DNA sequence: TATCTTCTGGAATAGTCGTTCTAGTTTTTG
DNA sequence: CAAAAACTAGAACGACTATTCCAGAAGATA
């Protein structure tokens, strides 16, 4: 039922169909597929399309020109990859359980992902419990950026946290600042930072769903 | 260059193409168009397609089956209809100047629209200056809902505001409550409310773009 | 009234399209 | 090794498709 059990050529065929539909707005004909993949015979193309259909990747409308449909529509949204709660280990869903769909007009959707915020550690920056934060992966950032920082501890899975990042050169340390006056910032000597910490990405957008009156 | 200068039949043809592409994932053939619109001749269909092309609504790839493309891709996002600032007249863009694209998995996109928030009147509900609020149009709401309320004043364009709605039966009035302790709620006697006010819709989601460090 | 644009139907054509068949090669499996 | 499965090429067929030409009707224009 998935791409893994398709052969090399069938994978390339499937990719071509997806890209063709994205750029042309319609599925390709069997002959166009053959031309692209250097397949001499249309019967040959038909054979592999039948295989792709049998494996559940596409469906076809008999006799219709360009009668190819993708069974799973292309994932255009931003995958929700897990839950982030300050200080606790990041709960990563290996497979995106859902996705939020924010248009490419506003945000680069390439490589970005979303996390669900737990807790009130960034409440004074108006990031609430339950909000989705859209993360653009990057390993560096500027002072004041809201970032996902991961503490790599030996022998344990790293714990991650959502904080504002400040590099304090005068003290030779990094400060991870929550936006909650009840919570204390985390101060990390630069040497420890370099050894044990890692920036995973930066918050580029926030999305909140208002279910009912709070 | 627009739908207005197309004739009735051409408008129906254009609509059919849009709907067909949405449901089938490919453009229709000339014959399928003719069948749907009760046009006997394929030459006749070609004539109107040529007209639609001349008017800039579609483009065609000669000789290719289903060779129709929509020039302006279908607006799938939520249109940003204006700016809302507490108490000031709603700045409505008659034509959506932009759109944010939030997937239908999360929100009904049908009929919903977005407004850009100006000011800090809802800051304690963590709705900030510059945030997009997604509005689901409805004329009634429940206590505690965050709504767009419009004050219809005679001889002037109505002013609108973003507030929490409370019907206070014991005082026979409506209270529009800002989420900012520096601002006072608006108290409106029920009779005045019924005569001069109108609920335009309810906030169902919030979207914020983080440009840089604040 | 005469003229132009828009709209409609029918027929024909050249090429495109999905599908099927035969026949062969290569790779995998038992 | 032998059998099965997967892959490849070529050709051919009937249906489908876009396009063009002809001819006429309806309505607006001037």
Automatic annotation (TrEMBL), chains A, B:
Pfam family, one: Peptidase_S24
Residues within the DNA-binding region(s): 30-50
Presence of keyword Transcription regulation: yes
Domain LexA repressor DNA-binding stretches: 7-67
Site residues, Cleavage: 86-87
Lineage top rank: taxon: Bacteria
Enzyme class: hydrolase
Gene Ontology molecular function, alphabetical: DNA binding; serine-type endopeptidase activity
EC id: 3.4.21.88
Keywords for this protein: Autocatalytic cleavage, DNA damage, DNA repair, DNA replication, DNA-binding, Hydrolase, Repressor, SOS response, Transcription, Transcription regulation
Catalysed reaction equations from the record: Hydrolysis of Ala-|-Gly bond in repressor LexA
Active site: 121 (for autocatalytic cleavage activity), 163 (for autocatalytic cleavage activity)
Subunit architecture: Homodimer.
Similarity-based family: Belongs to the peptidase S24 family.
Protein name (database record): LexA repressor
Originating organism: Dictyobacter arantiisoli
């Amino acid at each position: 039922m998935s791409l893994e059990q398709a052969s090399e050529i069938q994978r390339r065929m499937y990719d071509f169909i997806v890209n063709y539909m994205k750029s042309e707005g319609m599925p390709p004909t069997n002959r166009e597929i053959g031309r692209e993949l250097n397949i001499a015979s249309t019967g040959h193309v038909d054979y592999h399309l039948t295989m792709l259909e049998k494996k559940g990747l596409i469906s076809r409308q008999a006799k219709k020109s360009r009668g190819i449909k993708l069974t799973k529509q292309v994932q255009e949204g931003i995958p929700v990859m897990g839950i982030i709660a300050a200080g606790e280990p990041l709960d990563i869903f290996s497979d995106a359980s859902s996705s939020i769909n924010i248009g490419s007009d506003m945000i680069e959707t390439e490589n970005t992902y979303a996390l669900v915020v737990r807790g009130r550690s960034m409440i004074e920056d108006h990031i609430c419990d339950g909000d989705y934060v859209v993360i653009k992966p990057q390993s560096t950032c500027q002072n004041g950026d809201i970032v996902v920082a991961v503490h790599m501890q030996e022998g344990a899975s790293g714990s991650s946290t959502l904080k504002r990042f400040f590099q304090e050169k005068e003290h030779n340390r990094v400060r991870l600042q929550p936006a909650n006056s009840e919570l204390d910032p985390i101060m990390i000597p630069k040497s420890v930072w370099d050894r044990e910490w890692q920036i995973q990405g930066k918050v580029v957008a926030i999305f909140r769903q208002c279910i009912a009156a709070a």
